[in-house]
């Protein structure tokens, strides 16, 4: 009887230790993932191109709730790019203000709630004279999501 009790006690002690180690490892992994707003290392890259005609520069200022990416002046063909860790609850939102020729516009450039259906790791956008286009990596085509009409400002 004491051998059975001793074996039972040893087995339950080992099981408790194993469960404690597993719980500790799970907590460490989750905390490590949350510390840089990433969960299991997922990273998203957003790239915004200036696709204007007539050599029109784009003054672009993008930000999120946590990050201000600053003002960038993009010549035709240039791009601005940034990366961030995928958030656990998918609530990342970046928006931009743009000045190009005669147009001043503010718009969402990345919204995790809607982008899940169009891009995963690389989210490409292009700002053209007639609007903003977002590349759908799953269907392989550009979707027009923003509309404007940029004309070249006359120089005197």
From TrEMBL:
Domain of life of the native organism: Eukaryota
Keyword presence, Transmembrane: yes
GO CC term (a single one): extracellular region
InterPro entries: Self-incomp_S1 (IPR010264)
Pfam families for this protein: Self-incomp_S1
Major localization listed first in the record, in broad terms: secreted
Keywords: Membrane, Secreted, Self-incompatibility, Signal, Transmembrane, Transmembrane helix
Cellular localisation: Secreted
GO terms under biological process: rejection of self pollen
Membrane-spanning intervals of the chain: 6-30
Family, as annotated: Belongs to the plant self-incompatibility (S1) protein family.
Protein name stated in the entry: S-protein homolog
Organism lineage: Eukaryota, Viridiplantae, Streptophyta, Embryophyta, Tracheophyta
């Amino acid at each position: 009887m004491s051998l059975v009790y001793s074996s039972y006690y040893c087995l339950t002690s080992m099981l408790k230790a194993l469960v404690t180690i597993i719980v500790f490892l799970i907590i460490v992994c989750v905390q490590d993932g949350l510390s840089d707003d990433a969960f299991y290392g997922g990273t998203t890259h957003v790239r915004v191109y200036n696709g204007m005609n007539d050599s029109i520069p784009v003054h672009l200022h993008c930000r999120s709730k946590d990050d201000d990416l600053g003002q960038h002046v993009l010549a035709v063909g240039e791009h601005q790019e940034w990366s961030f860790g995928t958030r656990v609850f998918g609530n990342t939102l970046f928006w931009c203000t743009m000045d190009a020729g005669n147009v001043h516009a503010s718009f969402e450039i990345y919204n995790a709630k809607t982008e899940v259906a169009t891009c995963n790791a690389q989210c490409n956008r292009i700002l053209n004279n007639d609007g903003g286009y977002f590349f759908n990596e799953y269907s392989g085509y550009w979707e027009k999501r923003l509309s404007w009409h940029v004309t070249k400002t006359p120089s005197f």
